[in-house]
UniProtKB/TrEMBL annotation:
Organism: Shewanella sedimentimangrovi
Taxonomic classification: Bacteria, Pseudomonadati, Pseudomonadota, Gammaproteobacteria, Alteromonadales
Transmembrane segments: 63-82, 94-114
Keyword annotations of the record: Membrane, Transmembrane, Transmembrane helix
Protein's recorded name: NAD/FAD-utilizing enzyme
Amino acid sequence: MVRHYYATADLDDLEQVEHELEANGITEPQIHVLSEQDGAVESHHLHEVEPVLKQDVVHSTEIGAFVGILVACAVLVIGYLMGLTEGPGGWVPLVFLAIVLLGFCTWEGGFIGIQVPNVNFKRFQGLLHRGRHVFFVDIEQEQEGLLSRVIMSHPRLHAVGTGEATPSWVVHSQDNFKRFMKFMP
């Protein structure tokens, strides 16, 4: 899948684009609107980016966990090389310290991430601060033509790039879950 980004200041036009895409087979989990005007996006019934995903929590937590693994391994190796494992407690204190440091580094990464914009959306901060909205669609290769036709009929949308999309298995899982919930009593 590929993610296509478009910018506009017209939420009415975005609402129409979403309807056209959904009418032609693009599903809700494939479509999102990134905006600083959450109330306006919600009032137009657009699929907005979840607030937690606007921040870099997931990416920074992953980095924190990686650093935590390195620190935990260093503690275990240094403790072994210094002979600390041969004491009365053996490996238990070192393993406990390694687990605590891993947890702390992971938590700290997430804490830092909640304070900064998502790494995938940083390039759009200038547009967002000027009151524009970023519309993005994750599409399969065979949906490229459909997207192009719909976008061409909306001249207020301006392409602002492409990027890595949500994996297709995640999108299909979200679609299946939504269908399941719709038919369950």
